[in-house]
Amino acid sequence: MQNKPPSSHRAGLPIGNNGRPSAHATRPAPSGSTELDPKLLWVTVRHCWVWATPIGLALAAAAAFAVFSTFVPVYKATHLLEVNQDYVVFKGVMPTPRNLVASERPLVTNALVLDEVKNDPEVQAFYDSETPLSLGQIRGAVGVSNVGSSTLLSIEFQHKDPVAAATICNKITDSFLTIRDRLDNDRVSNLESWLTPSIDQWKNEVQVHGERVRDLSKMVIGYDPTHRVEGLENDLSVLASLRSNLSNLIVEESILEAKVAMNTAIGESSAKSDLDPSKVRAPYPEEIDQFVESDPSVVTNRRLLAERQSRVRNLEDRGLAPLRQEYHKELVERAAEQQRELDNALADARQRAPQAVTERLRRDAERDYQEGLAEKKTAALALRESINQQLVDLKARRAIIQQEYDIEKARLEQRGGKAADLRFATEDREIAAGILGQLNQRLAAIRTERRRGSGLHTLAQATPPLNPVEPMPTKKMIVAAGGAFMIPFLFGLLWELRSQKICDASNLESKVMAPIIGEVAKLPPKFGSRKGRRVFEESIDTLRANLMMSKDTIGVRSLTIASSMSGEGKSSVASQLAISVAKASGKTVLLIDGDLRSPDQHAIFGLDLGPGLSKVLSGDVELKDAVDTSLGDFVHVLPAGKMHQSPHRLVNASSIRDLLDQALEKYGFVIFDTAPVLAAGETLAIASETDATLVCVMRDVSRTDSVVRTSRRLEAAGANVAGTVFSGVPSSQYAYRYGDYRYFTAQPEPQTIEHA
Question: What is the pLDDT of residues 217-230, one digit of tens each?
């Protein structure tokens, strides 16, 4: 900064489009963003913790107590089953599945098993007699799992009564074992019924081949039995091997055909079955009420009634009912008419509700039933396709062996004559007898192994558990308490989003305003720490250095310190900046208190109001007589004085221009402390005549929209907004970001002002 003649106190600065010095270019408007700044969460905690923490703790305690008071302990009973791995004679005839949970869970939770349990009077006694017991209640409490190994199966049931849990668990298991045993018996019976035709067929084959053997024996009487046909024995051994293979394939083919036929019959019977109407439960009262409340006519009439009643209440609350009696009476009659329409709609909906809800329940039950049938049909189809593929492969193998057998038989018939025919007939009879024997053996094996009982047997029955599954609802209490504790902080966050307070210097970087020219630490209290005062003074010195060294403000001699509203630190910044500029330049600085409505500078420095600025601008007192020089040669103060007329009449562009011309003839620098821009329009006149203007923003106090409007007003008035000062930064945070570089030797305490 250099002392220049009064006529050129604005020279050396870039000129804007309004003819005023312009220290910065207007930034483009930032693109809108709806993203939540993560810093806002920390800001919310910092602002709200004082009141939100006790409220949150109270809500958390209430929520945890509510969960605890409504908590009902649940007991889980377990019935342990084991795979029956023993066999009577034939091992592997009745195989057990490898994945017990996957194969047995559908049956345990099936209506075939649970219907019997649901209808048991002993089970119904454990539930509320007023509400019908449903399959969903039982199915939701049943669990099926493996225990340790694949051969152990656990059926579990949960209930608030330990005796009920054990009783119902055992009944479900008994019903399951009964249904499973019945299904196994049905499967064996079906297999027997499908194997019987094959057995009868091969009995007939044995009989036919036996008669042929007898006929051929009569024809070859007189034939020397000891006569050997050359080479015939070896060929017959080959033929016997082929016959043996054919017989084995025929047995396997018969069994597979029986399985296909049985699977097809089961699939067709399932596809033709319909839902039993008795399985559709009656609608519950709450379902009737829900249907009535959701009826479109009821919803519409209820909304219209609420609107009309709201108009009546609004008229009465405003005290206009006596004044507008006719209109009030008309509104009341309309509301009564709408109430009657609502009652009619409710009666009509309640009349239609039982049939409609029953029909919906029937459709839901039919859908679930058909889905179950579809799943069974799909499984049966997949199994049938697998068996058919095995059957196709088996028939292909049999055709090949049959062809070889026919070729070999024809060749031997040409060589052996009737003796060979007799041999062949004998072997055909033996093959048929062998196939018949294998089929009978298979059927006998299935019947024998079925007598051993079910594939699962009880290892340990369920007993009433001693301890509940969860003695205390700890997790639910923690979740409820945590959610309740966050409620006041959520309201605090909503308030922060609504108020849009500036909490960090980075919040200003994207706004349409002058760049941040400096950050100022929080003004320490009167008896604050020495470190806090040192950091505050250092931040002011840094702000002064930025002003003096910046190429945009290097020629500035007059400066306006402004803010959007009161309490944003402009008076503290103005007074301390005046001291810092005076010490750095060695020239006297005139500090003018331009806030005629609520002045602060006289209180900060402990001075009298005197005639002040108001008398100077009105022409009653000369400038040199109104300035207070009691602080020394560095800083002279012109207090605001007592306001004797409207500040708008006193403060205007011409009077401020004349005042600056006089002041700059004697002082190296002039700093104005002004009134808030949004509350006092006279500040615009002061800012438009000074070389530069600094807008003060207080951390956690200033609002974004206010600062933006202030900057735009100043620029519209022709002020050169040189930068924004972000004040109120905690000294510890300022020292962390910029360092705390203290002096090596002891220094006298610099003069520090206090905010009034």
Answer: 666 543 433 344 44
Length of the chain measured in residues: 756
Q: Give the residue from 144, 146, 147 showing the smallest Cα distance to 157.
A: 144
CA-wise closest residue to 114 among 158, 173, 161: 173
Residue entry with tokens 């720490």: 529
Question: Residue 660: helix, strand or coil by DSSP?
Answer: helix
In the beta sheet, which residues pair with residue 153?
A: 81, 146
Q: Residue 256: CA atoms inside 13 Å, Cβ hemisphere, count?
A: 19
Two structure tokens written together for 206: 């044995």
Question: What is the pLDDT averaged over residues 17-46?
Answer: 53
For 599-646, the pLDDT digits (tens) are 888 888 888 888 888 888 888 889 888 999 888 888 999 998 888 778
Strand-strand pairing, 721-729 and 692-698: parallel
With contact defined as beta carbons under 8 Å apart, do 579 and 543 qualify? no
Residue 481 has pLDDT above 80, yes or no: yes
What is the Cα–Cα distance from 632 to 640, expressed in whole angstroms? 19
Number of H helices, E strands in the chain: 21, 11
Spatial separation of the C-alpha atoms in residues 547 and 724, rounded to whole Å: 11
What pLDDT does 245 receive? 76
What is the DSSP code (8-state) at residue 598? S
- Let me know: does 661 contact 681? Beta carbons within 8 Å: no
Q: Which residue type is seen at 374?
A: A
Q: For residues 317 and 660, give the distance between their C-alpha atoms in angstroms, rounded to a whole number.
A: 59
Position 17 pLDDT exceeds 70? no
Sheet containing 142-147: which strands, arranged edge to edge?
142-147, 149-159, 75-83, 456-460
CA distances from 198 to 335, 392, 401, 425 (A): 84, 18, 21, 21
> Closest by alpha carbon to 610, among 587, 590, 630?
630
Res. 5: pLDDT tops 50: no
Out of 79-93, 108-122, 217-231, 316-330, give the one with best mean pLDDT.
108-122
Of 76, 85, 77, the closest CA to residue 152 belongs to: 85
Return the closest-CA partner of residue 104 out of 141, 156, 165. 156
CB neighbours of 89 closer than 8 A, spacing ≥ 6? 445, 448, 449
Burial class (CB in 10 A: 0-12, 13-18, 19+), 137: middle
Higher pLDDT, 94 or 648: 648
pLDDT tens-digit profile of 700-730? 787 888 888 888 888 888 888 888 888 888 8
What is the value of pTM for the model shown? 0.46
The closest of 721, 677, 680 to 702, measured between CA atoms, is 677
> Helix H segments across 457-556?
474-499, 530-549
The per-residue pLDDT for 3 is: 41
The answer to whether the beta carbons of residues 444 and 153 sit under 8 Å apart is no
d(CA 13, CA 688): 14
Two tokens, residue 87? 């066999």
Confidence of residue 754 (pLDDT cuts 50, 70, 90): very low
What is the rounded CA–CA span in Å between residue 630 and residue 339? 82
Contact residues for 719 (Cβ-Cβ < 8 A; gap 6+) = 20, 560, 684, 687, 688, 690, 693
Antiparallel, parallel or unpaired: β 149-159 and 669-673: unpaired
Give the Cα separation of 529 and 670 in Å (integer). 31
